[in-house]
Amino acid sequence: KIAMSKGPHSFATTQLDLTNDLQAKLRNWVIANVAREDLSPDEAQDDAFHVTVLYGLKTDRHETIRLFAEGTGPVRIELGAVAQFDKHPDYDVLIVPIAKETGLRALRKRLTDSLPWEATQDSYVPHVTLAYVRKGAGRRHLGATAFLGEGVTLDRLRFSDSQGTTSWISLLPVMAFAKNNLVEGPDGTMGVWRTI
Description:
alpha+beta
């Protein structure tokens, strides 16, 4: 992905990385459509395309995040047309908004209701960042429909603490009193069974 450069951050974050196929489609679109000279000087090519669930977490404890997120159920998203955030004075942010979702806002609410965090934006706008571009350079891409209607179900949450240490948390339902197998539950959902 094309994302702002890494390093220690003020807060921890949770996000849903997109599938490899969708990662490739987004990356190829950016390479084919966004001129290198239009990219912000701070661009880096080392992060996965993702949907942020919650940035601003004031805990670096992986076990705490796992306690509130594990087994909450997969998240389904559908992408919209290309748009942008243009409020920053130095660059614009080319994005693909999440047009439809199931479970994303519920997962975010579970985390915000349970964990210490600080709002870093005025509101939550679920999206996938395509690229940080120089001011005005994103306008020509607004409304592009290359990803419109693309849907995907995501079942792993990535937690990155403020130092960048990452862990993965399964969102698949956890069902008790059984063996360590992936099996179909009574409601038709797949889950990881484990003995407790």
